[in-house]
Amino acid sequence: MWSAIIGIGTPTFFYREPVNVRKFIQKIDTMNGKQCFLFCTHGSIIGNTLYHMKEDLLKRGLLVIGSFDTYASSSLQFYPTPMHTAYHPDEIELEEAKNFGKNICDISLRIQKGEVDLIPKFELIEDTWWAKNSKMATPEFFRKFSPKLEINVDKCTKCLQCQENCPGDAINIEASPPEIQNEGCIFCWFCEKSCPVGAIEADWSPMKEFSKSNLKKYIEILKQAEREGKFRPYVDYEKMY
Ligand SMILES: Cc1cc2nc3c(=O)[nH]c(=O)nc-3n(C[C@H](O)[C@H](O)[C@H](O)COP(=O)(O)O)c2cc1C
Ligand code: SF4
Ligand code: SF4
Fold first, then answer.
1. What is the distance between the alpha carbons of residues 89 and 95, in angstroms, rounded to a whole number?
2. Cβ contacts of residue 56 below 8 Å, gap of 6+?
3. Are residues 34 and 59 in contact, defined by beta-carbon separation less than 8 angstroms?
4. pLDDT digits (tens, 9 = 90+) for 169-202
5. With a 6 A CB cut-off, is 132 part of the ligand 2 pocket?
6. Is the peptide bond before 82 cis (omega within 30 degrees of 0)?
């Protein structure tokens, strides 16, 4: 008998799923025995994204039966542009994603018939520099240390693009003065980079300085992935720091 499989997609933020995705999963009504699969885009380090999602989904009664992840072009204001994973996912990764999609129904049926060995295991990694950083990367931490975004009212055209696309529902353009990074902000900084007239302003220089050492480590990790045949660079990422 066929039953629907639920797919949940996410980027990786700070070495795990973003806060809004976490909250979304925690609000899912309990669905005992339902199967789901995960897909994830990330830069150099997917971290514990799949592990945490799997654990939270299990608490809602959902069994993760497979996952697909791929490098994706990241853009962060305090890192170089283009970034090291630029032009990903590439043709090969898109083909792999298609094949994953084609196979997941078969996997689902086989697990239903008792092939429980097919259920993937996701390991929690704790003993690395990035896992430690991930634990620190709370909304409270960013509220203190992230650059303060400000809306320049002389430039803002009130197009509402930032407000409508804010994943934390943390912008109120109609307020006087307009509000940004209200309660709920997940520090994705998407509003700043997507404002069509550059009306959201911030000083990125402290973050640029702070992030230099991370960049070096990302490059080492990508070099290793390249040696293992898991990453194909499209930019000269070794010269990026
Ligand atoms: C705020 C922020 C934090 C990020 N943190 C990570 C990270 O910890 N590890 C990683 O591999 N990529 C990280 N990225 C890169 C994103 O995962 C990547 O931009 C995203 O997967 C691209 O997919 P999209 O085009 O669908 O947003 C981060 C990106 C942003 C904006
Ligand atoms: S996207 Fe920019 S111009 Fe549009 S409302 Fe937001 S700040 Fe104003
Ligand atoms: S950084 Fe901007 S877009 Fe992202 S959640 Fe905060 S206010 Fe919204």
1. 10
2. 22, 25, 26
3. no
4. 999 999 999 999 999 999 999 999 999 999 999 9
5. no
6. yes
* Distance, CA of 63 to CA of 57 (rounded, Å): 7
Cα distance between residue 233 and residue 226, in whole Å: 8
Name residues contacting ligand 1 (CB within 6 A). Answer: 11-15, 41-47, 72, 74, 76, 188
Task: Tell me the average pLDDT across 53-78.
Answer: 96
Q: Please give the Cα distance from 10 to 20 (Å, whole number).
A: 10
Q: Which tokens belong to 107?
A: 């996997």
* Cα 42 to middle of ligand 1, angstroms: 5
Structural domains in the chain, CATH included, are: 1-135+206-241 (3.40.50), 148-202 (3.30.70.20)
Q: Is 185 in the pocket of ligand 3 (CB under 6 A)?
A: yes
- For ligand 2, whether the C-beta of 172 sits within 6 Å is no
- Give the atom of ligand 1 at the shortest distance from the alpha carbon of 218: 11
Question: Tell me, what's the pLDDT at 1?
Answer: 53
Q: How far apart are CA 76 and CA 83, in angstroms?
A: 8
Angle at 220 between CA 219 and CA 226, to 5 degrees: 85
- pLDDT band for 237, please (50, 70, 90 cuts): confident
